[in-house]
Amino acid sequence: MGVTGAVGQELLALLSQRKFPVAELRPLASARSAGGKVSFGGKDWVIQEATPDAFAGLDFAIFSAGGSVSLALAHEAVKRGCTVIDNSSAFRMQTDVPLVVPEINAEALDAHRGIIANPNCSTAIALMGLTPLHRAFGLKRFVASTYQAVSGTGAEAMRELDTQVRAWVKGESSPPKVYPHTIAFNVIPHVDSFLEDGYTKEEMKMLHEGRKILGHPTLRVTTTCVRVPVFRAHSIAISAEFERPVDLAVARRVINEFPGTELCDNPSTKTYPMPLDYAGKEKCGVGRLRKDSLFDNGLSLWICGDQLWKGAALNAVQIAEALVARGKLRIT
Ligand SMILES: NC(=O)c1ccc[n+]([C@@H]2O[C@H](COP(=O)([O-])OP(=O)(O)OC[C@H]3O[C@@H](n4cnc5c(N)ncnc54)[C@H](OP(=O)(O)O)[C@@H]3O)[C@@H](O)[C@H]2O)c1
Q1: Is 284 a catalytic residue?
Q2: Whole-number pLDDT of residue 329
Q3: Which residue, among 308, 306, 320, 280, has the nearest Cα to 62 in the 3D structure?
Q4: 91 in the same domain as 15
Q5: Distance 104 CA to ligand 1 centre (A)
């Protein structure tokens, strides 16, 4: 669902690349795209309009078409025997919906009732770096600042950055449509809508989704989310405080041993994770590791990850793979 979108296109590529055993593909989008075609597995498949009956006979659906479409159609799909993996924020905080990063809490899949939520992209990437440290030292609280790529907003936002850069080179201007301000050669400290207390919804996802995924109800988090003129891959600067003293050598080892995460950290060779290096990469990279000068038992770090992949399409495919491996594709 949402096959023509930024995430949908990556889903097709990953299902193929990871040799997911697909007998029938049913590409779904809005009525605008119905009748068009996508290539997959050496065949062309006709895009259909997403309606309740479009899910009949399917084992599972990956939804990437926004929250309102998920709210309208996810339960319809489940009623027709189809397990839904949802990329939107519509169901993430519902208690009967598992919110899953397979490397962290795959066991939560076993209790699913038909809908499984894929986490917010910045939260998933932050936790890929923080989880091994949490297991080693006990995470108490952290401060996060994000540097979020435009593909996190979707295909239209990627076109907006491209158009504005080209206009700038020609000495022309191209007014913003997707973002409230020009994104080319700028940074916008505003991702998602503002709440009454001054935080944005995106910033609060790091706290609420982080607590749910880690099973850590007392975790404290403050986040500032910033959109940057990068096409693909989010970066996050984090200062974290732990229950126990942090040993840097142990921190480096547990990060590197954690599946889906790698250490990319060598100041002497100017080595640290950057979006250009982590776009189109399955692993998230952690670097700039140092004892934090603010917190007791503190560590500062920098994480990069492809949010179209680990923050959306790859994580969704990994959830599907884990469901199959655990024999939990169907509701029992
Ligand atoms: N981009 C990311 O990095 C990212 C990360 C995590 C989660 N997500 C979530 O994933 C979802 C998709 O994001 P995206 O970035 O791929 O957006 P996008 O590039 O704007 O694509 C949106 C997709 O939704 C389809 N769609 C729109 N209205 C529809 C409707 N009424 N019925 C059926 N399909 C409809 C569009 O189809 P048409 O072409 O026919 O309009 C298109 O395929 C969103 O919920 C987003 O929050 C995105």
Answers
A1: no
A2: 84
A3: 320
A4: yes
A5: 26
